[in-house]
Amino acid sequence: MEVHKKITIGVCVMEKKVKCGSEVFSAPMGQILDRLQAFGEFEVIHFGDKVILEDPIEKWPICDCLIAFYSSGYPLEKAESYATLRKPFLVNELEPQHLLHDRRKVYEQLEKYGIPVPRYALVNREVPYQELDYFIEEEDFVEVHGNRFWKPFVEKPVHGDDHSIMIYYPSSAGGGMKELFRKVGNRSSEFHPDVRRVRREGSYIYEEFMPTGGTDVKVYTVGPEYAHAEARKSPVVDGVVMRNPDGKEVRYPVLLTPNEKQMAREVCIAFRQA
To answer: How many CA atoms lie within 13 A of 6 on its CB side?
Structure first.
């Protein structure tokens, strides 16, 4: 009698990225894995931090399909070597994940695939406070290689893991700068009325500020054929995070236009993150 073999799914993700309280997995990750196992066709193998960080890849569990994505401290090159050795089906391709750590490379990839981006310019410094002959700052604009950006404009660190993003406002609106950051309690931005000069500690992207009516839209893709979109109050408004009675950030499902759906599809294909 032939025994039906289950498809093994390896979860090669740092535990701090998926832990929730005393549980091994967060509620969303747990939902994904529970639904996979409910089919009866899959067996889930969780690698764990000790295996990922300490064991050689030859000792990692062998699986048919690999769920792996970067978080702080994750050995991405090691996971790539494992994938080369065992050749599992990759839910998220590993090599393109290197691009996500550098906003310059992200923008290059978007442009390569014809995906629209705001008008932007790069200021690259090899050392902090390096004087650059192509960079000019005046009260209400910066100029990069002759490309002028009038306030309000956005300043982003080139490092994708650095979420300290600034918006500088024109003197006609009272000036000042708004700092955006990852949610801390009920705050996601802070206004600094006396800051008028841009940062010079490192390398930055400058781009046009795009008004959105106080709303941000997050799009989640599951492969190139499916996208789910949610709107939330933009941190640009007042920096206060709207939460429901359960403490979760308030979000509303929204319908994407055909153009937006196509853009979501192209982003998924460009970065090969299913």
So the answer is: 14
> CATH number, domain at 137?
3.30.470.20
Cα distances from 23 to residues 27, 33, 37, 249, in angstroms, run 9, 13, 17, 22
For residue 172, what are its two tokens? Answer: 């006609």
pLDDT tens for 26-84 read: 777 888 889 988 999 999 999 999 999 999 999 999 999 999 999 888 999 999 999 99
Q: End of a domain among 208, 230, 249?
A: 208
Q: Provide CB contacts within 8 A for 262, sequence distance 6+.
A: none
SS3 234: coil
User: Residue 115 burial by CB count (10 A; 0-12/13-18/19+): exposed, middle or buried?
Assistant: middle
Shared domain for 76 and 125, answered yes or no, is no
Q: Which of 169, 190, 208 is the last residue of a domain?
A: 208
Q: What pTM does this model have?
A: 0.87
- Supply the range of the domain harboring residue 81: 7-92
Torsion of CA 186, 179, 122, 94, to 10 degrees: -20
Domain count, the chain: 2
> Does residue 27 share a domain with residue 86?
yes
DSSP label of 21: T
Q: Does some domain include residue 135? A: yes
- The span from the CA of 271 to the CA of 274, in Å, is 9
- How far apart CA 67 and CA 61 sit, in angstroms, is 13
